Give the backbone structure.
Amino acid sequence: MPAASTKSAYWQGLRAGLPFLLVVMPFGMVFGVAATEAGLNLAEVMGFSVLVIAGAAQFTALQLMTENAPTLVVLISALAVNLRMVMYSAALTPYLGDAPIWQRALVAYVNFDQNYALSVQEYEARPERPMPEKIAFYFGVTTPLAPVWVLATWLGAVLGMLIPAEYALDFAVPIAFLALVGPALRTLAHMAAALTSVIMALAFVAVPYNLGVLLAAALAMMVGAEIERRMERRG
C-alpha cells in the first residue's frame, strides 16, 4: 500500500474532523466547569475525560452524582448511555475488523460520536478502500478532536469560574448531536426511530435519574428495527 495514499486518507480524515472543533471545544469546557462546580478536583475532572472520553456518559454520571443518586444507579446509567458505543463498534467491525489488534484497541479507546459517524459515512461511500487507508482516515478524524476534548476540559476546570454567566457554553451539546444525527436520517426507519425517541423522551421526562431517555432509546430502536424488517420483507 503506497504510503502516499495512506497519508492522503489521514489528512482527508483530519480535515473532515476539523469543523467539529467548534462544538467539541465548548462541550469540553462545559463539562470542566460543571465538574468543578460539582466539587470534583482537577485530577478527578481530568481523569474523567481521559479515561472515559464520552461526554454524554460523563454528564449523566455527573448529574446523578450531584443529585446524590446511589453509586450503582450512577454506574448503570452511565454505562447505559454509553451502550451506543457497543452499536458503534458493531457497525465498524465489517470495515475495521481485520485490522491488527493493537489498532483495534486504539480505535475502541477513542471511539466517540464524531469519528464513528464520519468514518462510517466514508466507508459506505468508498468501500473499496484498503484497510490501512480506512484506519488512517479514522485516526485522521480523531487527531484534532480527542486532544482538544481533554484540553477543553482542563480549560473549563481551570478557567470556568471566570466565564460570565451570559456567555453560556451549553449550546454546544445539542448542536453537536444534531450535526451528527442529521446526515444519518437517510431512510424511513431512521426517521421513525428519531421521531419515536423525541416523543418518548418527552413522555418519560418525569422518570427519575434520566432513565426515561434510556427507555425512549430502547423503544426507538425497536420501532426502527421493525420498520426496517417490514421494508426488507416488501423488497
Notes: The mean pLDDT is 84. The radius of gyration is 19 Å.
